[in-house]
């Protein structure tokens, strides 16, 4: 991805500032840190802006980090825990290993918050805010993030391997995976629009460019030159071939042209009832932005298991 700043219009999804959501016994509220750490949101926003200025790809990485966290036992920062001699976390699970990025950015933001208000802001809330701020910084919509999450004291490598849909997923598998998290088909199609930014490795799209029939021929041939049947596993390609560092709706335009990079992407426009949503988002950026923001709010409030103990980690990589 290019490393220039991008400014775009934002459509703000307005929620009542007083809204409160109960998640696993904890009340989430946009004003959670208003008295305990009033500079929390500005510190996260500044940390995200600095990281994206250094490497624009970071914005997509932080958004993906939030997704991969929430799909495994809720949005509890379990994905941030490092392995230890007696503990295997989620970082080495198949969907995450050598793939999920942005951990150092979260570390730096956490360090700044610990200086400002020690032991107050959870790592899970940082991840949720960083995802929103990344989208806004890259020209996408904003939304109100309810806060007050606790950080998990454990993680699940096995659930990470089974709960996060792989890029080879068909439509049925995608629907099932999102439904398991309480997310609708509409939520799924809107959230998939996050692939309007970011990059993917050759290993993620190799099967599509050699095996799929629902793919533009010239598009496939071009990709085959950089991603052979064997080798070049880590070669990167834009998820959105046109504007990979700008949050827009061109991802859906690409699907209409059979130029979705991942098999799971093109499954959203492959002769099913879901096609109508893809057409709608390709036609109306505002509609996509509004539905994306609503879906992000819903995803960010996926509940951890009942009875799960939580804490405010001092270091996001390990329990206190």
Automatic annotation (TrEMBL):
The subcellular location is: Secreted
In what residue span(s) does the Plant heme peroxidase family profile domain sit? Answer: 27-320
Provide an example Pfam family for this protein: peroxidase
List of catalytic residues: 68 (proton acceptor)
Give the main EC class.
oxidoreductase
Cofactor-binding details, from the entry: Binds 1 heme b (iron(II)-protoporphyrin IX) group per subunit. Binds 2 calcium ions per subunit.
> Which annotated residues bind substrate?
165
* The protein's name: Peroxidase
List the source organism.
Answer: Eucalyptus globulus
């Amino acid at each position: 991805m290019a490393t220039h700043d991008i400014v775009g219009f934002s459509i703000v999804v307005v929620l009542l500032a007083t809204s409160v959501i109960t998640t696993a016994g904890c009340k989430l509220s946009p004003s959670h840190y208003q008295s305990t750490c009033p500079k929390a949101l500005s510190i996260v926003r500044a940390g995200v802006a600095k990281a994206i200025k250094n490497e624009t790809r970071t914005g997509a990485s932080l958004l993906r980090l939030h997704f991969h966290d929430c799909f495994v036992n809720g949005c509890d920062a379990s994905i941030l825990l490092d392995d230890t001699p007696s503990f295997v976390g989620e970082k080495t699970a198949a969907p995450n290993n050598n793939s999920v990025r942005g951990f150092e950015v979260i570390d730096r933001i956490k360090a700044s918050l610990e200086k400002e208000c020690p032991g107050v802001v959870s790592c899970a809330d940082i991840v949720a805010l960083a995802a929103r701020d990344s989208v806004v910084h890259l020209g996408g919509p904003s939304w109100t993030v309810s806060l007050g999450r606790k950080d998990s004291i454990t993680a699940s490598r096995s659930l990470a391997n089974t709960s996060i849909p792989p890029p080879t997923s068909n439509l049925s598998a995608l629907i099932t995976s999102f439904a398991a998290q309480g997310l609708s088909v509409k939520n799924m199609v809107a959230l998939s629009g996050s692939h309007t930014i970011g990059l993917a490795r050759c290993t993620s799209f190799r099967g599509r460019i050699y095996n799929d029939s629902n793919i533009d021929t010239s598009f496939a041939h071009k990709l085959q030159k950089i991603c052979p049947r064997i080798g070049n596993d880590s070669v990167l390609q834009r998820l959105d071939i046109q504007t990979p560092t700008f949050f827009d709706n061109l991802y859906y335009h690409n699907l209409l042209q059979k130029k979705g990079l991942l098999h799971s992407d093109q499954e959203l426009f492959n002769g099913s009832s879901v096609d109508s949503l893809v057409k709608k988002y390709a036609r109306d950026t505002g509609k996509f932005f509004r539905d994306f923001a609503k879906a992000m709010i819903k995803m960010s409030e996926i509940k951890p298991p009942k009875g799960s103990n939580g804490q405010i980690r001092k270091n996001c990589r390990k329990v206190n």
